[in-house]
Each structure stands twice: as structure tokens, then as C-alpha cells.
Amino acid sequence: MTQSRPVTQARPRKVVLGLLPWPERQAVAEALRTETVGGLVLLGAAVVALLWANSPWSETYEWIRNAHFGIPALGLDLSVGHWTADGLLALFFLVAGIELKRELVVGELRTPATAALPVIAAFCGMAVPAALYALVAAGTGGSLDGWAVPMATDIAFALAVLAVISTHLPAALRAFLLTLAVVDDLGAILVIAVFFTSDLDFWALAASFAGLGLFYALQRLRVRGWWWYVPLGVAIWALMYNSGVHATVAGVAMGLILRTTRDKGEEASPGARVAHLVHPVSAGVAVPLFALFAAGVGISGSALLDVVTEPESLGVVTGLLVGKILGVFLGTYLAARFTRARLNPELAWADVFGLSVLAGIGFTVALLIGELAFPDPAAAEHIKAAVLIGSLTAAVLAAFLLRRRNRVYRRLYEEENRDDNADGIPDIYQSGSDAPGSDVSGSDRSGSDRSEQERQPA
Questions:
Q1: CATH code: domain of residue 134
Q2: What is the pTM of this model?
Q3: How many separate domains does the chain show?
Q4: What is the Cα gyration radius of the chain?
Q5: Which residue, 399, 322, 405, is CA-closest to 358?
Q6: Is 247 within 8 Å of 265 (Cβ atoms)?
Q7: Model confidence pLDDT, tens digit, residues 320-368
Q8: What distance, in Å, lies between the first and last C-alpha atoms of the chain?
Q9: What ranges make up the beta strands (E) of 6-92?
């Protein structure tokens, strides 16, 4: 008599880019709403900068950008251009730090299983463009100083492109793009801190770290009140600037320190409150002002010829257009393949490819790193032109690819947002197995766990 062996049930494969848990989708939607509006303002500021710099009033533009003001005794006598890059962008990186902390504590980066895909995709999306830049620049006798320029994705500019072309990109794809950009921002700030720091003033750096320690202690002691944190934050920023480390590092450090989980009785965590107040200022004022004084480059036949003939400029364009696409797409594909995940059946790898092309828009951080890598104004102008041309080409190509699939996106968008019982929660989260490309019970359970974790203290 033969003994039957027990049948082992195969473990279900994780769905890539499936339905987001409801709490995660709410957080992503709020962040993307502000970024989209800010992206449109950013787009307008870049256009104004280009028109102004190529108009009969270009000398006025240069005069304003190079005008100095500040407090020389504190080492803060900066030009308008430097105030926007070193000062206002600190707000941008403060928000980036808060978003990264939230992702690490309650978001997609909370567990290795969910973090693997965006982290691998982002890492490949930074490494491949840098390698291609080095290959192109070194192969044609150029400088390797600009290897980091094509590394970062500009989420605001990318969302502005989506708004302009009116595509109904599903929430999962938008969330993936946001997480990708968050990891990109972390990589960019590490590159700025490590590779673009010179002439360190260790006393100023030590004082800045002491300020960060006090900032951390105030958070742990649950001290509230802007009158504690705003003066302290400004002091930390000023000390970081005078230390020789780029001042935006102070912003991301304070963002990572802010608590992103709620105590009992709190309506919102300190990180969420600060992000709610600062994010609109960062997206709608700080980043567009930086773009206004960073994107103003002269566009002429000779300048465009320099972009395609100079090794450094050609390396930047190649990194953005080829490196980003290959890096993000292959990183996503390989991560899904080796983790035995399967793509949401409602989507196709063509959608991931279109998103990879969109990631080739590297505007704000690319311009910042370009200024740091090439202090010579003439060389910096060519790098800026290369960033603009690469980002614009990526935007046009991504718009073409994503618009072709907009019929599918519109159907998924309508399914994701249908709310027949008008209870404020889309029906797809209450409809059992009807959720497209996702195990709804798993998503709901994940969302419940995350909501519970958000209520616990850090």
C-alpha cells in the first residue's frame, strides 16, 4: 500500500505595482498633489529663466543672480543664486528627509521585501548614468567631475509632465516613482556631502552636530513649539554652511530626526505637521526660485553644438537619456525576477519602461550638482544646457510612451477611485477579490498593520 505524500501549496508570488494599501495611498496622494502643483510652478519658472536669459534684459538677469547680500560677519554674504541653492533648497531637502523617514518607518522601505524593488531600481538608476557619463567623458578626453550630475530624478518636474499630458497614471506607478525619487534624493545628498565637501572647518561642523544633537533631544523629550526649532534649525544650517559641508545636508539631517509616528492623542506626528507646513513653500516657492536663477542659460546654435560635442555635456545627456532608462528598467526587471515577484497583470513592462524614461528628467538636483562639480561659470553653463536638453527630451519621449497607454490607465484609475456608497473609501478596498492585480486581503492587512504602527511612538 503506497502512502500518499502531503501536497505542499506553492507560496503566492508577490505582485509588483499592485493595489496600494489604503493608508499608504492616502499619504502618497497628499504628497503627489503638492508636488504636482509645485512642478507646474517649477516648469513655469524654468521657462521664464530661459526667456529672460535670452532676452535683451539678460544683463539684468545676471546682475540680480550675482547680487550679494547677507551678514558677512557670520560668513553668510552670498549671491542671490547661492542663497537659492544653499538656503532655499535646504527646505527641499528637509521635506525629502521627512519623506525618507516616513518611508523607512511606515512606508515602502519599512521591510526588506517591499524595499527591495524601489531600492534596487533607484540604485541602478544612479549607478548606470554615472558609469555611462564616465565612459563617454573618459573616452573622449573629458573631465570625470560631472559623473554625479545625471544621477537624480526630479519628481516635481516629472509630475508636472504627467499633469500637462493629462495621463491617468495608476496610483501604484505614481507611488513607485515617488519612492524612487526619495531614494534618489538620499543618494544625491550623500554624494553632495561626501564628494563636494572641501576645506572643512571642524569647529563649525562640530557645533552643527551639537545643534543636531539638541534637535534630537527636543524631539525625544516631546518638546513642542516653533520658537524652539526654527532658530535652532537656522543656526544648524548656518554652521553647516560655514563648516564647508553643503548646507542642504542640514535640511535632510533635521528631516530624518523629526518623528514621523504619532503618540497617543496626537492628531499628526511632528514630521507630518512640518511637512504639511513646509512642503507647499518648498514646492511652490523654494524650488521654483532656485530654477529661476539656475536654469537661465544662453541658448544659441553654438551653445547647442557644444552640448553634443563637448565630452562633459554629452556625458550628461547620455546619462539622463540612456543611463536612467537602462538603470531603472533593468533594475526593476531584475529585482522582480530574482525575488520571484510578478508584475500586476493589469500592467505591462512597457509601463515600467515609460516610467523609466520619465525618471530621466533630472532637473533640480542635477542643476545643483552641476554647479558644484563645475565652479567655472562657462563650463557650468554648458552642463546646465545639457541637463535642460536631456530632461526636456526625456519628458517628450515619456509623454509619447505614456499617452499611448492612457486608455488602460484611465480604466484602472476609474476602478481605483469608484465609490458608489460615497463613504470616502474606494469600493475596490471593500470588494473582496475584485481588486485588479492584487490580493486585497493582503493589501488590507498591510494597511491595517501600517495604520496601527503609525499610532505607536517612534
A1: 1.20.1530.10
A2: 0.80
A3: 1
A4: 23
A5: 399
A6: no
A7: 999 999 999 999 888 888 877 777 777 888 888 998 999 888 888 888 8
A8: 59
A9: 15-16, 68-71, 76-79
